[in-house]
Each structure stands twice: as structure tokens, then as C-alpha cells.
Write a sequence for this structure.
């Protein structure tokens, strides 16, 4: 038997586009003599469809896509994910299902049992869990058909669930496992995914073919990396990351094993590729072409500009340089050098005249009061207004350049430097931004395919918002090499203050930082969507109350 895996970049609600991709993959698999082709979870509608699942017409169009794929299943079996109506009145209205199509008919449907309801997942909001598990017979083989999370409770070790679907199917002695997934990216997840798939194979002593989705869905990135694992636990093949791919495998060869093939998994290469894909798909799936950003000469805006250029092309990126009376000459020069290195259009608009107009208008009310954060925020909001004006006038999407460290502690101005349609670095800590630059500066990028496109000054100078004379980030924040490990333990690892102090963090620092994080929840509620590259990003995967008193 020859089995094709097709990892596709699917688009939520784009039924025609998704169907066209799947039909093309079916034709390609047929040309390679495949007996069966496997598509990802909820492939007909894209993942995660969220509340589109509550629209009756949306479900009808999913079924129409299944009907079309059924007609294409002559002489090749098609395994594909789609929502299915629950015929029983009690319970949720839908199942998350894997269809097995062959010779123009629905031969089998296996529903998903383990419905994740954590982090970015909210499947129990929509779906009823499966209670029946049967293998699918095809060309003399029995197939254990499963969906994503259903392989993540091996041996009933996951306390979130009370059943292990594959344990149930093993009673029918299947020959191999098919798993269709929509498994989101984070920079550590690929290794965990391989470990889980291999653990299942070692437990059941049969091969697994695992198909994952690829592509950006606003904040969530799917990295592909579909897997074939032989009965000996070796990774027979791992498909590429962040790109569409179709490969055909001979079951007999997979069963022999003895081959180990894995993709490289360097952290900052993965982060870089995920961010580029996230920007590209955000624009293309919304039907936009051009992006704009504020370019300050600092490292965050520099990295965002480079990523945008890689994702969209230099001709589609525009930068606005907005020096204040406190901006240093080298900041403007660094920004100009980067824009010229990249070959992107840039404009310079000094903000002092606009800021002076604000000061003049507010003079009667502010008379006798000292310059403070108010005037700093006015400058940031002038910049935000200028960027949004350019965005509106020219139809550009504004890319936000705020990093995760700043976003965590509220070191940003609402309606100012926090403006934007997409937060590119909102899940990348400041110390990680510096590491990301080291990787990016090894790549040929920009107009002349330069190595080291980001100027050294942008990397080496102390971070500063340049909103008052001689300002540095460390005037308001702990050094990032101190701050970021503490933030990581609180945000990603969910360690409370006592645990953090026990780990060796200074008690005064812990209380100060955690208070900054918690009182700025209101800012993050209003922020642009953040491209998720870690296990715990700001956004729908981290839901904390704005007015909570815990740790305050």
C-alpha cells in the first residue's frame, strides 16, 4: 500500500481555495500511484474556525466540500477532517471528524474523542467527544484512524482525559495508525510532537502516519513537520517546516524501519521562519499587500522591518522615521541605513511641530506642572497617529514592533507605539530579539542580498524610547537579562511569587515586576494580535482578569 501525506496551508472559511488545493493534491498522489491520501484536521474549513462553527451555512459548505471530495475518491482513498453534525439532541451540535472516502462513498467517519480546552484551544465549546472507536478496513489492512489530541493520552497518563482512543482501537488489531492534526507551532513543540508520536508507536508496535497543517491563521502558526514513524520507533521521515508538501510512502518500506530522518530544529531559525510565515499569511489571507512600520533605529523596529521585507518583498514595505527633539543623530542614521540596505521606501516626519502644538493646546491646563510620562506618551501617540494616517491613506497595514518584555510590563503607550494590525515580536522577549538578530544577520537579505543587514549600532546601543533627554529602558525597568528570566517563569511556567523567590529571584524585584505585569492587563486586551511562537503567548491562550487582585 502506498500512502500519501499532504500538509497544506489552508485558509479558514475559504472552501473553494481549500478544496482546489486538496483536489490538486489528490491528482498528484494518483500520479504517484498512491492508494490513500491523508489531509489535516478540519481541512475543508481550516483550523481553528471558532464561532464560524455556529453558522448553519458554514457547516453546509463543509458538507458540500466533503461531497466534492467523495466524487474525487475514485481509485484513491481520501482521509480528511471536517465538522459533522451530531444527530442526537443531547450534547453539542457537532463532532470534529475524520472522513474516510473511497470509490465515491463515505466509507467511515471517526469522531475526535479528546477535545483540548486549554491555551489557544477551545474545542469543547463546539464539539461532542466520540464514544465509539472502530478501525477502518482498506485493501486488506486495518487502519486506526485518529485526530490530533487523540494520541496525546498514551496509557491514560494525561490527567485532562479519561480515555485513550488508540487503546480502544487496538482491540481490533490494526496494521497502522493514521493521525490527522492541526498542531500549532511553538519553538519547543516539534521535539515534543516527535516524542509523543514515537511513544505511541513503541507502545503499539505499528507504524504511524501523522499529517499536520501548515500556515498562519492570524496569531496561530502551523509548522507542518508531518511524520512517518516505523514500528522500531525510528522517524522514517519528517516533512519540511513552514511549507506545503506532499510525499508518498510505501507501507512495506516503512514497516521495515531502520531509517532515521529528522529536520533541524534550531530555536531561532524556527522563530524566524514562523514570524515570516505569520506576516506573509496575515497579509495574503486578508487580501492586503503592503505594510508600514515606524523605524526608530532601535533593534525591535529593525528586526520587524527585516522580517516584513522577507515576508512581503521590499517593494511592499514602507517605513516612517519620526525623530523627536530627543532622538540622537545616530538613531535616524541607523534607521536610514537599514531602510537603504533593505531597499524599502522610507519617509522622515519630525514630530516636534506636532508635539509643540499639543503642548500649546494643553498649556492652560498643564501650567506649572513638570514634564513627565504624560509628555512622553503624547510623543508616542503623535507617532501612532502619523503611522495610522499613512496606513489609512495608502492602504498599508501597520506592523507593531513591541517585544514581549515590553508588552508584559506595560512599557508601551496605548494608541501610540502599541498601534498596529499585527504584533510581530509580541511573543519574543527582548533578550531573544538579540539572539534572533544574530541568526538573521547570517542571512542574505534585502536589496543587495546583504549579510549583516541590521546595522551594528542598532544592536549594540542601550535600548531607549528616546522620549526625554538621555533616556534608557533601564531607567524604568530592570536590565532585560534580569527581567526576562523572571517573566518567563511567571508567564510561561506560571510560577507564583513564593516559588519565584524560592528560585532565587529578589523578593522586591518579584513584587515589582509581577505588579507591572498584572496592572497592565488592560493594555494587552486592546493590543494587536500577537504571532505565537512560544508555549504561552499573550492573546487568547492567556486569559487573565483585568481587575484581579492576585499578586497585586
Amino acid at each position: 500500500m502506498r500512502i500519501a501525506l499532504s500538509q497544506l496551508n489552508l485558509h479558514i472559511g475559504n472552501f473553494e481555495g481549500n478544496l482546489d488545493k486538496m483536489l490538486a493534491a489528490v491528482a498528484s498522489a494518483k500520479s504517484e500511484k498512491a492508494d490513500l491520501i491523508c489531509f489535516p484536521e478540519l481541512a475543508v474549513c481550516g483550523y481553528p474556525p471558532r464561532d464560524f462553527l455556529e453558522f448553519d451555512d458554514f457547516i453546509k459548505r463543509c458538507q458540500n466540500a466533503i461531497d466534492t471530495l467523495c466524487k474525487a475518491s475514485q481509485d484513491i482513498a481520501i482521509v480528511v477532517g471536517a465538522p459533522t453534525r451530531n444527530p442526537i439532541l443531547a450534547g453539542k451540535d457537532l463532532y470534529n471528524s475524520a472522513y474516510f472516502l473511497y470509490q465515491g462513498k463515505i466509507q467511515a467517519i471517526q469522531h475526535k474523542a479528546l477535545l483540548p480546552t486549554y491555551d489557544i484551544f477551545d474545542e469543547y465549546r463546539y464539539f461532542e467527544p466520540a464514544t465509539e472507536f472502530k478501525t477502518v478496513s482498506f485493501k486488506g489492512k486495518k487502519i486506526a484512524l485518529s485526530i490530533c489530541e487523540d494520541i496525546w493520552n498514551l496509557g491514560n497518563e494525561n490527567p485532562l482525559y479519561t480515555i485513550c482512543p488508540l487503546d480502544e482501537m487496538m482491540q481490533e488489531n490494526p496494521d497502522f495508525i493514521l493521525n490527522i492534526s492541526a498542531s500549532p507551532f511553538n519553538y519547543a513543540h516539534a521535539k515534543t510532537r516527535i516524542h509523543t508520536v514515537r511513544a505511541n508507536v513503541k507502545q503499539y508496535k505499528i507504524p504511524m502516519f501523522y499529517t499536520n497543517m501548515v500556515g498562519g491563521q492570524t496569531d496561530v502558526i502551523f509548522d507542518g513537520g508531518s511524520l512517518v514513524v516505523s514500528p522500531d520507533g525510528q522517524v522514517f521521515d519528517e516533512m519540511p517546516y513552514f511549507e506545503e508538501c506532499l510525499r508518498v510512502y510505501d507501507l512495506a518500506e516503512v514497516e521495515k524501519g531502520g531509517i532515521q530522518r529528522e529536520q533541524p530544529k534550531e530555536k531561532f531559525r524556527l522563530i524566524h521562519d514562523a514570524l515570516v510565515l505569520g506576516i506573509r499569511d496575515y497579509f495574503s489571507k486578508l487580501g492586503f499587500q503592503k505594510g508600514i512600520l515606524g523605524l526608530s533605529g532601535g533593534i525591535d523596529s529593525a528586526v520587524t522591518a527585516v522580517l516584513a521585507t522577507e515576508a512581503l518583498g521590499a517593494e511592499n514595505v514602507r517605513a516612517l522615521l519620526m525623530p523627536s527633539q530627543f532622538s540622537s543623530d545616530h538613531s535616524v542614521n541607523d534607521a536610514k541605513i537599514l531602510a537603504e540596505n533593505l531597499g524599502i521606501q522610507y519617509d522622515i516626519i519630525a514630530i516636534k511641530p506636532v508635539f509643540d502644538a499639543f503642548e500649546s493646546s494643553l498649556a492652560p491646563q498643564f501650567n506649572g506642572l513638570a514634564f513627565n510620562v504624560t509628555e512622553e506618551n503624547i510623543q508616542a501617540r503623535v507617532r501612532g497617529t502619523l503611522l495610522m494616517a499613512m496606513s489609512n491613506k495608502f492602504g498599508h497595514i501597520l506592523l507593531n514592533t513591541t517585544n514581549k518584555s515590553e508588552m508584559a510590563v506595560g512599557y508601551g503607550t496605548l494608541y501610540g507605539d502599541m498601534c498596529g494590525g499585527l504584533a510581530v515580536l509580541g511573543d519574543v522577549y527582548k533578550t531573544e530579539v538579540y539572539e534572533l538578530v544574530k541568526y538573521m544577520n547570517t542571512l542574505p537579505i534585502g536589496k543587495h542580498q546583504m549579510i549583516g543587514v541590521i546595522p551594528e549600532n542598532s544592536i549594540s546601543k542601550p535600548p531607549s524610547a528616546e522620549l526625554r533627554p538621555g533616556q534608557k529602558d533601564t531607567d524604568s525597568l530592570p536590565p532585560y537579562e534580569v527581567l526576562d528570566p523572571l517573566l518567563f517563569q511567571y508567564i510561561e511556567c506560571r510560577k507564583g511569587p513564593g516559588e519565584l523567590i524560592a528560585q532565587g529571584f529578589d523578593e522586591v524585584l518579584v513584587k515589582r515586576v509581577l505588579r507591572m505585569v498584572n496592572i497592565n492587563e488592560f493594555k494587552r486586551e486592546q493590543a494587536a494580535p500577537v504571532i505565537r511562537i512560544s508555549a504561552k503567548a499573550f492573546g487568547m491562550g492567556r486569559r487573565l482578569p483585568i481587575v484581579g487582585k492576585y499578586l497585586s
About this structure: The chain has two domains: 2-265, 288-473. The chain has a mean pLDDT of 95.
